[in-house]
Design goal:
With 140 residues, the protein is mainly alpha-helical. It is built from 5 helices and 2 strands; from the N terminus they run αααββαα. Helix content is 70%, strand content 4%. α4 runs antiparallel to α5.
Length: 140
């Protein structure tokens, strides 16, 4: 039993060194890095950092108006504000990626055209929705 414990402790630095080398030489693919960068950008643009720092209310109920999911003031936001914005930004990014991917299918024009149209529709839905929310509820 003592021999096994002694051998385990003698090989621990070797094992830790091996793990350290493996962690420091990891090179993620470009696709993983791009997806991570897009996810972080969408999180920040959607107001995720504000939600973590200030912990806003999810929504507000007013007896005269009803439920407010979008805060009418520019200085504050509800949790639903950021969820809606994050979803719309993600739709816009997906639409842009679909439009980009459609250029890779030049040999199949029907598929390229369909991907392009779906991407344009998603991008327009995201843009028009964000503009409508800003104009209607925020008064811009």
């Amino acid at each position: 039993m003592a021999h096994k414990v002694k051998r385990l402790f003698s090989s621990t630095p070797y094992l830790l060194n091996k793990i350290y080398k493996r962690l420091t030489t990891v090179k993620p693919s470009n696709m993983v890095l791009a997806v991570a960068a897009l996810a972080i950008a969408i999180f920040l643009f959607g107001g995720g950092l504000y939600n973590l720092v200030s912990r806003p209310l999810p929504s507000y109920y007013s007896p005269s108006i009803g439920f407010l999911f979008v805060n009418p003031y520019l200085s504050d936001q509800f949790l639903w504000d950021s969820l809606i914005a994050t979803t719309l930004f993600a739709l816009g990014v997906i639409g842009s990626l679909l439009m980009y991917q459609s250029t890779k299918y030049a040999s199949n024009p029907r598929q390229a055209y369909m991907m392009l149209m779906v991407g344009v529709v998603l991008l327009l839905i995201a843009y028009i929705s964000i503009e409508a929310i800003l104009r209607q509820s925020k008064g811009l």
